């Protein structure tokens, strides 16, 4: 093979023409190809993913010393990791630093990327997989960007309470349409290959085997810039005037305020400010970006969102190991089963799906197409995923499956009847998992032959959007079963939360008082919009009335009735009119009508009265109390798991760092006393859990 070729064959190998003996230590490997182009591959030694750490930048700086002295024909930067280009800055490096230190560190980083941008030769970034945050900024500092099919670019910093800090704010707005650039930074969304090319982020889109030729073409200036009208068009020209930018900024601000209120999420608002003020002055924007970033790192929101990032990492860690699961059989191809099947097939599992209803199996294939489309799979990958998913009306797949997931309607008799039928056909080491959301596993397991291989695998709806899966164990479930199920979650890119069999498990136990208290408030005559706004004001992603509609009032009723009989603590009574609504078919989103009219999409409670703080406490504190109960009874292992589960299953106000973190910030004594007060005013359902006193 000639020329520089990156081969992803097991261990990644960089073949660099003459420089086969390129140093293996450090983060960068460099070699010169026969045609005079220097290739540098980023290859963080101790990880499968590249991050843009201080060490990466300092080593780049050393390489630049040589390149400035002796400029090559062109310089190509790429990643030696099969996974992708680079996943952003190393967030752990910011821990414990004060804003001045952060500013100084960033300043050094800016100097290095500026030097890269100022090299007298063409600089080319080749991006496969994802170039995020600092990785995207590194690519933006180059003259050209070649995207390998499937690549994506993005700035997820807002999810950490930040905005880009290594030059992204002015480099991206300087490169493409400014409003599009701001949208990408404000939403944290990724621009996948096609969009990246349309916007002008990627100059070339090609396949891996043509990368060397594409780099040569960029080096020779033979590539026409992409993004035409979106680059330096009329609109971008107009935005150079501060009055036009002010107008655009005002619109951005009001839209952003709806999605991410400034009081809770200062970063996107700070980004709008700095663009509005300095959008026409690159060096002023650079200085403002540095200072603003350093200020944001110190905010409570940023610290809590970094906590959320770490909680995700900790849950992922629980998913390590082998699952020993190649073939999954799903029984029941309804709303949940179809999506679970599609998702697992998309992630490489062989899948069979059985259902009594042939129409459901037909719809499941359509669902799978939608799931693959939503994940931006190409035509070939979608076809492969669909090939792996086989409708199996007679359930023959049970005999070959390593994991059987049952997702039939929430009726204990039906489920146990199915278990009795399939257990004898299952392989001796296969696992049987139920997706039940409210039935106790101990009872269901009575129908199962080998209870050690029976557990819950509780996915949330919609499966493709919700990251969490509760892995529920009974007293009889073996460690190997729970470990394999957690590893299975990891393989299919979900976050496992191991929990004990308990009414509602962890997440529904916590959500039920939130939903039912809302029903009590409606019963008291409070308007549904006011109830929803009280929760939104706290930072919940959806008010409880909207959420009840979203989940389905019939399902809420099932869960509430199940919990009422099982829990020691009183739960709010379900009002009769809610049962009437279900009987009349007004079950919420799926029926087009519940509390709200859903015919035009998700309802918006609008702005206005959000009730008293009392009202918010009545909704939020019982959730915290349920968390404490679950911790006291070892339903979940620790506070971090509870916080992670609530954030990744329900979107619990991420900027507050999770319910238990919020309880710590507010003070356990204060939470307990407030619950006590509420119990005196509104009834025994608010009596604080004994764990608050113990855990001061
Ligand atoms: P669903 O009614 O949409 O689908 C159930 C499917 O099972 C139907 O297609 C039905 O034809 C099929 N079925 C019925 N009897 C069968 C049998 N004997 N053999 C094979 N298939 C059979 O239900 P769903 O909403 O997907 O719920 C399934 C399970 O998932 C329930 O236990 C529910 O509690 C749980 N769950 C639901 C949600 C949700 O939001 N829908 C969320 C989490 C968990």
TrEMBL record:
Keywords: Fatty acid metabolism, Lipid degradation, Lipid metabolism, Lyase, Multifunctional enzyme, NAD, Oxidoreductase. In the N-terminal section; belongs to the enoyl-CoA hydratase/isomerase family. Its EC number is 4.2.1.17. Pfam families: 3HCDH, 3HCDH_N, ECH_1. One of its GO terms (molecular function) is long-chain (3S)-3-hydroxyacyl-CoA dehydrogenase (NAD+) activity. Residues 327-501 form the 3-hydroxyacyl-CoA dehydrogenase NAD binding domain. It is an enzyme of class 4 (lyase). SUPFAM superfamilies: 6-phosphogluconate dehydrogenase C-terminal domain-like, ClpP/crotonase, NAD(P)-binding Rossmann-fold domains. PROSITE patterns: 3HCDH. CDD domains: crotonase-like (cd06558). Residues 592-613 are annotated as: Disordered. It catalyses: a (3S)-3-hydroxyacyl-CoA + NAD(+) = a 3-oxoacyl-CoA + NADH + H(+). This is enoyl-CoA hydratase. The gene is fadJ_2. One of its GO terms (biological process) is fatty acid beta-oxidation. Pathway: Lipid metabolism; fatty acid beta-oxidation. InterPro entries: 3-OHacyl-CoA_DH_CS, 3-OHacyl-CoA_DH_NAD-bd, 3HC_DH_C, 6-PGluconate_DH-like_C_sf, ClpP/crotonase-like_dom_sf, Enoyl-CoA_hydra/iso, FA_oxidation_alpha_subunit, NAD(P)-bd_dom_sf. The lineage of its organism: Bacteria, Pseudomonadati, Pseudomonadota, Alphaproteobacteria, Rhodobacterales. Residues 504-598 form the 3-hydroxyacyl-CoA dehydrogenase C-terminal domain.
């Amino acid at each position: 093979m000639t020329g520089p070729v990156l081969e992803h064959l097991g261990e990644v190998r960089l073949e660099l023409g003459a420089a086969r003996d390129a140093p293996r230590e450090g983060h960068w490997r460099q070699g010169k190809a026969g045609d005079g182009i220097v290739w540098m591959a980023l290859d963080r030694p101790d990880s499968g993913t590249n991050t843009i750490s201080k060490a990466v930048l300092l080593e780049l700086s050393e390489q630049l010393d040589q390149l400035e002295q002796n400029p090559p024909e062109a310089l190509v930067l790429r990643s030696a990791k099969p996974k992708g280009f680079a996943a952003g800055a190393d967030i752990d490096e910011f821990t414990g630093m004060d804003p001045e230190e952060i500013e100084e560190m960033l300043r050094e980083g800016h100097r290095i990327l500026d030097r890269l941008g100022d090299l007298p030769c063409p600089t080319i970034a080749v991006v496969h997989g994802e170039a995020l945050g600092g990785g995207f900024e590194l690519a933006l500092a180059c003259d050209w960007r070649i995207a390998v099919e499937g690549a994506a670019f993005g700035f997820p910093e807002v999810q950490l309470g930040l905005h880009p800090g290594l030059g992204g704010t002015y480099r991206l707005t300087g490169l493409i349409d400014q409003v599009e650039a701001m949208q990408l930074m404000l939403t944290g969304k990724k621009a996948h290959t096609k969009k990246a090319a349309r916007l002008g982020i990627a100059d070339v889109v090609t396949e891996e085997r043509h990368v060397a030729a594409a780099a040569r073409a960029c080096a020779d200036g033979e590539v026409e810039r992409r993004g035409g009208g979106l680059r330096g068009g009329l609109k971008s020209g107009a935005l150079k005037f501060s009055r036009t930018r002010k107008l655009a900024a005002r619109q951005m601000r009001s839209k952003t305020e709806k999605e991410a209120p400034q009081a809770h999420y200062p970063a996107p608002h700070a980004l709008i400010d700095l663009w509005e003020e300095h959008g026409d002055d690159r060096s002023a924007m650079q200085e403002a970006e540095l200072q603003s970033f350093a200020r944001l790192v110190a905010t409570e929101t940023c610290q809590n969102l970094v906590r959320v990032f770490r909680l995700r990492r900790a849950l992922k860690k629980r998913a390590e190991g082998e699952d020993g699961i190649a073939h999954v059989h799903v029984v029941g191809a309804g709303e949940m089963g179809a999506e679970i099947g599609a998702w697992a097939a998309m992630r490489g599992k062989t899948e069979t799906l059985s259902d009594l209803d042939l129409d459901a199996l037909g719809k499941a294939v359509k669902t799978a197409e939608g799931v693959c489309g939503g994940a931006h799979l190409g035509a070939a990958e979608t076809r492969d995923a669909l090939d792996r998913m086989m409708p199996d009306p007679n359930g023959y797949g049970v005999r070959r499956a390593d994991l059987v997931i049952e997702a039939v309607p929430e009726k204990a008799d039906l489920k146990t009847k199915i278990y009795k039928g399939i257990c004898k056909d299952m392989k001796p080491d296969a696992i049987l998992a139920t997706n039940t959301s409210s039935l106790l596993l101990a009872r269901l397991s009575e129908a199962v032959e080998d209870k050690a291989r029976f557990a819950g695998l509780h996915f949330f709806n919609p499966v493709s959007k919700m990251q969490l899966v509760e892995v529920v164990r009974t007293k009889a479930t073996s460690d190997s079963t729970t470990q394999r199920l957690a590893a299975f979650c990891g393989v299919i890119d979900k976050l496992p939360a191991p929990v004990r069999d308990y009414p509602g498990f962890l997440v529904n136990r916590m959500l039920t008082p939130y939903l039912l208290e809302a029903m009590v408030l409606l019963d008291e005559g409070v308007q549904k919009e006011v109830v929803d706004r009280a929760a939104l004001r706290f930072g919940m992603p959806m008010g409880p009335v909207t959420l009840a509609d979203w989940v389905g009032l019939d399902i809420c009723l099932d869960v509430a009735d199940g919990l009422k009989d099982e829990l020691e603590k009183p739960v709010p009574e379900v009002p009769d009119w809610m049962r009437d609504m279900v009987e009349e078919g007004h079950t919420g989103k799926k029926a087009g009508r519940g509390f709200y009219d859903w015919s035009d999409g998700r309802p918006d409670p609008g702005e206005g009265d959000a009730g008293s703080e009392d009202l918010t406490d009545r909704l939020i504190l019982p959730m915290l109390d349920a968390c404490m109960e679950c911790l006291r009874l070892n339903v979940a292992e620790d506070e971090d798991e509870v916080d992670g589960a609530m954030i990744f299953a329900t979107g619990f106000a991420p900027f507050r760092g999770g319910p238990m973190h919020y309880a710590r910030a507010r003070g356990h004594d204060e939470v307990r006393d407030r619950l006590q007060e509420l119990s005196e005013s509104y009834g025994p359902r608010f009596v604080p859990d004994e764990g608050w006193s113990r855990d001061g």
